[in-house]
Each structure stands twice: as C-alpha cells, then as structure tokens.
Amino acid sequence: MAVLAGPYVLDAYTINILVRSFLYAATALTVDILWGYTGILTFGQAAFFGIGAYAAGIAFTYMDFSSQTAVLALVAGLAVSAVVAGVTGWISFFHGASPLYVAIVTLALPIIFVQILYSGGTFTGSSSGLVGYNTFDLSVEAWFTICGVGLVVLTMAAWFFVNSDFGRVLVGIRENEQRCTYLGINAPRLKILLMVIMAMIASVAGYAYAGYTVVVAPEIGSFVFGTELVMWVALGGRGTLIGPVLGTIAIDLISAYLSGNLPFVWKLIIGSIFVLVIVALPQGIIPVLKTGLLRLWSVATGRNAAPSIAVPALIEAPERPRAGTGSDAPALNVVDLACSYGSLKVLEGVTFKALGSELLGIIGPNGAGKTTLMRCLSDGYERTGGTVAVFGHAIARTPPQRVVGFGIGRSFQTTSLFETLRVAECLRLARYRLDGTRVLSHATTLALSDSARRVITATGLDRQLAIECRHLSHGMKRALELAMVLALEPSVLLLDEPTAGLTKPERTLIGSILIDLVRREGLCTLIIEHDLDFVREISTRVIVLHQGKVLLNGSVAEVVSSELVRTIYAGGAHREPAP
Amino acid sequence: MTALILDIITSAAILFAVASGLLIILGVLKIVNFAHGGFLTMGGYSALVVTRLGWNAWLAYPAAALSGVLMGAVIERFIIRPLYDRPLDAILATWGLGIIIGQLITIAFGREIQFVQVPITGATNVLGETYSLYRLFLILAAAVVAGSIAALLNATRLGLEARAVIMNEPLARGLGINSGQVRFTTFCIGAGLASLAGALITPLSSVDPNMGVPWLVNAFMLVLVSSVSLASLATAALTLGGAQVLVSTFISPVIGGLTIVVLAALLLRIRPAGFGNG
To answer: Hey, is the C-beta of A87 within 8 angstroms of any chain B C-beta?
Structure first.
C-alpha cells in the first residue's frame, strides 16, 4: 500500500533516494539469508550487485539500449554472477572449512572485482565508471513502484523460504553443521547453491540500479559497499528479514539527508552505533523494538501474543529396502584400520567384521580409541590407514554425508543437537536425505521409521515435538539423538555411549529397543559402553579395545571371564605376576 | 636480476612486518582483527604527527608503536573482551572500529594524501645495482620484529603463557594461567606491531585515511595460510610476496596486486593447513 501511495505523498528527492534504498534493501535481504539464517558471513554480495550493474552499463553503452540488449544484459549479469558465486562457494565451502574462511574469501571478491574494473581501462570506464548511456524510458514514480513492489514480493518470498522446512535445514547448518553432515545433508553443496541463488538476486538488484541511475562506478561493487550491507543487516536485526529491509531503507535515507552536511561525522556515528549494537544488542535494533511492542500489546490486551506452533502429525514411513539389503558382504568390514595424530597412534591395526543382526559391544578404558574408531568408521577423511567397507563398498575418502549414504548412522557421545530447532524440526532434518524437503512451505506430516517412532513414544518425546531442543532434559536429548539416527534408516548403527547419564529405567528401555531392532530389522549395531552389565545384557559379541588395538574379540561370556579384561579395568595391567 | 631479488626480499619483509601483529592476535585471541587496517593507518599518521612537530624522523617508530599499544588497550578492554565467545561478531566489531578510526583520522587530518619525512633517504650500490636504502632498512626492521616476537614467545613468562593459550586455552586456564591477562597483553602488542608497521610503510604507501585497506586483505591471506606460526608466515611472505613481485614485474601491476589473495585462497582450498605442518 505504502509503495503504491508513495509517489503521491513524498517529495521528489525522497522518492529518488528511496528507489536506491529499495535496491540496497533487496541486496541486504540476501545478506540476511546467507548470514542471519545460514551463518555464512559474506562481504561479497556487493560484487554480485556490481556485476549485475556493470552488465547493464556495458551492454547499454556499447550495444545501445533496446529490449533485446536489456534482456541480454540481465541474462549475462545473472550468468556471470552465478558462475562467480559457484567458484567462490567451491573455494569457501568444503569438508572442514572454518566459518571465518568464507568471510575472508568474500572480502577479497569485491576487491578483485574492482581491480578488474580498473584494469578494464576505457572499456569499463576505470575509476570513473560508465555514465550517460540510454536506458529504460521510465519515470521516477514508475521506478519507485516497480522497485517497491519488487522488494515487497521478494521479502514475502524470502519469508516463506526461511520459514519453510528447507529454511529449517539452513538454520540446522548454522547451528551445527557437523551434525548435519552426519545426517546425510550435503551442507557444502547446499551452501554453494544458496550462494549462487543469492548472488543472482543481488545481480538483478544491481541491474535495476544501473538502469535507474544511469551511472555505474566501481564503488557499487566495492568491499566498502559489501561491508555496509553487513552493517545494515546487523543494525536492523540479522535473521529477521524485515529488520534488514527497514534498517537499510532507514539508514540509506538518513545518510542521503545527513551526509551532505556532515559526511564524516555521519559515518563515525554509524560506525559507533554498529560497534555498540554488535557488543550490546547482537540481535539488532528491530527485534528489540518488536519485543517491546509485543510486551506492550500483551499488557494492554491481557493476551499472550506468542504465535501457536503447528506440530506435524507423525506417520509411518513407507517401507524401503535399507542400504546393503541382499548383499553377501559383511555389514562392516574393517581391515588394518589406523589413525594417528603426528607420532601419537590412537588406533593401530584394528581389524574386525560385523554382520547384520549383530549387536557388537565395544568396551575399553578411557583413551582406548573407542570414539576415534566411531569417527573413522563414519568419516572417510579421519583414518590414516587401512580400509573400511560397508556391505562391500569401501568408504574410501568420502565426507560423512556420503558415508551416511552407504548405510552408516552415527550418534554422538556428547549430545550434539540443534539448540534453536524444535524436536519435530530435528527429526525432519534427519529425514531430509530420504524424503527431501519443501522449499516454500511446511509439510503437515512427518514420516518416521517404526523404530524411531517407538523411541519417541516410549520416552514421551511425542508430546514435546514443539519444544526447542535446548529446553529438553538430558535424558530427552539422548532419546532424540537416538531417534534421529534411527530416522536415517541406517543398516549399520554406531552408538557412542547412548545411555550415558541416563537413569536405570531409561537405560533398560533403550536397551530393549536396541535388542528388538537388531532382532526384528537385522541391523548391525556397534555400541560403545562403559557399563559392563549393560553390555552383557544386550550384546551378542564384544570387542575390547586397549591402547588403540583390538585386545579381545569374542562372545560376551569369553570377555567377561577374561582375566585380561579384569586387570585392565582394575588398573592392574602392570602388576608383576606372583612368584 | 639483483634488483628483482632485492624487490622480492624487501616486499616479503614488508608483508611480514604488516602481518605479524595480525598473526599473534589470531593465535592467542582466535579472532581475526579487522581493525588491523585502522591500526596501520594510525601508525602512518603517528609518523605524520612526528613530521609536523619537527621531531627526529626516527621517533616516528616508537611513537607509532606506543599509540598502537594504547589504542589496543582501550579496544581490548571495552570491545573485544565482551565478544570472546562470539568470534564472527568480533570480526564485525573490529571492522566497525576500523571505520571509527578511519573517520576520526579523516576529521582530524582531512582526506587528502600526505607525505611523511623519511629517516633514511638515498640509494646504495648492491652488487652493481643501485637500490633504495630505505627498502634495505625494511629487511632489518622486519628481522628485528621477528626476532623480538620470537624472543618474547620463547624467553619470557608471558611468551610461555601465550604459547600455552595458543595450544590449549581451557587447559592453560586450568593450570592457573590468567588467560584474560594474556589476551589483553597480546592484543596490545599486536596493535602496537600493526601501528609500527603502518609507520614503516609510510614512505612506500601514501598516507591517507584508507591507506590500511590494501594491506589488510593481503595480511589476512598470509596469516591464514601460515597456521599461526612465525616461521610459516616468513615462508608465506617470501613465496606469495615473491609471486606478487614477479607477476607485477612481468605481467601487470594490477594482476600483481591480486596475486597473494588468489594464490592463498587456492592454496587453502587444496591444503587447508597452508604452509603450516599437518
């Protein structure tokens, strides 16, 4: 409404500035989705804005303006942006990359872009850019309406996008990327894809900017603009969509009025507010205002303004063959596995096989290499020697998200969940690999395998689907962790102390579920445990690890009666035998 | 040929001096200090003030280092300390600080390019080539910086504690090391080094409010590929700085300016440990 009414109530100067602000806000929105929602701190959106703008500027200058060149320039800008974003993403996101790294790479991107413009000489107009080309024959009011409506549509689309099931995947990546990869989510690829799409949106904004202002200069693709975008998003409120949009428009508008009189002081003020907000109000200004208003509203009306949350209905997942079904090869075949950090050998010569329907207990004192073994089985990059094959497929050097595809599901020793995601959303993340996800909406049902549903109902998690993970009790978190792994429908289950810190009844419950799983569904299960009694109750076979080597591999009775195991656990390994 | 080799060595020396302050802050505080460019600029203007006051040009270096240390102390106490648990936010806050420093300098000194008195002028003859004495002096300066940091790390109690914090901060704290104090001192020294480097580069780079920015990204890249090790930083400065000089000389200065960034980014993609071990 405001966008349509704008031209009639605002003065020409304000309208003129606002068109530009709208385009900046659209670009800030892409920064918000990348940084606020997905945790990718990017300074590079300016470069894509610049690419879109220069595509238009160069095309209109050298080929003159026509509807064909207009389309050509738009497509060229989109294509170049997509390719550059793809390459940037490939450089920035790989298994084990630090989140700081992308910030540096995307900071370099606009600097490289500007250097290329400088070296373009008269073709790109060097430091003064290109001006005065023919462009769209539109009035300022028409531009205002087009850009304003465009911004509103984009913001709404972004709202549906980030609140969809796919948006939750992005938040999952921000909160705990490592866990995502162990759920079979290819986080690096999703991030690259997202970066490409956001780059293309920024490129369209830049294209419109060039069409509107009839000026393209290196400043619009510079890293200063790139950092300004991040500042606007931080000030408005990262991860809120509306915050960055309003923040950008407000700051750009005030800048336009103030910077004429007080250029340096204004920048100083913005810089100071920015530092203050980062230190004291990391969520930004708009969310603080919003919380205040909501509180006023609930005081004034006596009603709680908190929105109600829809909980998906749990349904049974369709039967599908698990990985490795019908294979003659052993479920897990580990040969001569080694893992060392420098001269420290954590695992050495570990060789064993595990079959379907086996529940293999792995025991050993602290530091024996049990958790390292789990890591080496679930991440192809971890081991330093030997081979691991799942149903005859070697896992080679593949990241965890590929290993999940071979049929391995792993739970973690220290609970590793997604703090701000709800229980149902965590479970949906675990189903992403099998069921995919909706990009603009919510699914109303959540299909889970039988075993996962049994863990959930038996522990009462089904009544807490709408609760954020961080509010769950420790026992509930362990149960959710287990349910998520089971929801992956693995063929080989790696459980790292699934019952640590649980009460006796909770342990018994999980134990009986595990036994049942192995018997009924023929899962190959490896379980690390310290509680020997628990291991004795549930295991079909036991492997004893000691100082990185397999000490014993035999039936429960053999291991329990072993003198060796007793001395290791009693700490008497170095005792001299009695004369 | 001699001139080219000297160019490579002196460029590496400058890059090393510029990046060393960033390196020790990243090592101990685990944050990337985006205010580094601001500190460099401050060092440049400290040299300018010394020139304007008519003092001996050699005083520019202690003056720059001192102003950096003082600024670092204030910033660490009020901005960096609350952000220990939020490294990405610390990046942004230090970036904002860089802007504040830049604007304060602009308000105080204006936007125009300034020139600073140089303590060493003229040229000398090295193996039949005439070469700038100042650039040769920079090799010495970088060596002194490297030597001082190494001595500080290996021969003092602070250095021992800093190395402990670099390796394993929770453990160091458990052993009774006041890691807050170590962080504070390190940030001050890092800021002082950056500011000193800013004064050192003044004869080569013009003095203007944005003088730190071009150095900033190169310094980042060098530090990222050197895995928090002084020796690796020296290797990285020599290799990538050398590549920069070669590309600038034989291909084009503009592409030369991008050499370090592009090579470092590719190197990290292929070998995340960069020039470090492991």
So the answer is: no
